[in-house]
Design brief:
The protein has 173 residues and is α/β, with parallel strands linked by helices. The protein has one domain: Glucose Oxidase, domain 1, CATH 3.50.30.20. Helices cover 27% and strands 20% of the residues. The protein is built from four helices and nine strands. The longest helix is centred in the C-terminal third of the chain and has 23 residues. The relative contact order is 0.24.
Length: 173
Amino acid sequence: MLYLADDSPPIEGRSFGAPASVSGEVVFNTGMVGYPEALTDPSYRGQILVLTYPLIGNYGVPDDNIRDEYDLPKYFESNNIHISGLVASSYSWHHSHWAAQKSLSKWLWDNNVPGIYGVDTRALTKKLREHGSILGRLHVVRLFSTIVFYFVFLFHLTHHLLRQTTWQPTEES
């Protein structure tokens, strides 16, 4: 869930990153390629980045140990992810590229960066262009464990109630 400081309604999305809650300035990038470069760009430090390009995650993330002739990361702008959160229109759970070493989801998870998709990033970008940058909070919960806990709780509660209310035959019945 993305909350903006301008009192607009919360923006719902589905998680593909780490279960975390972060705050930052919400900014956008309209680039058509290069999400590994955008996420490692130091100019986005501490910001929640909105990517407007619709295909995110489709080529995975290359090996961060590959260096160029100057001993700099070959496929990244720096050694670390600098964004605090990521917002995308759609996310591809299946990546396919010869240089991919992991998925974007795994990379975000490993770096404790939350990400959501299923957001109308064009409308959000339009809002940011019209009003300037807006402070926001990206809150992603670990839904699977919450659901499992909920079902385990319901199972035990139901089992307990059934033991207390189960009809027992008596001599009169």
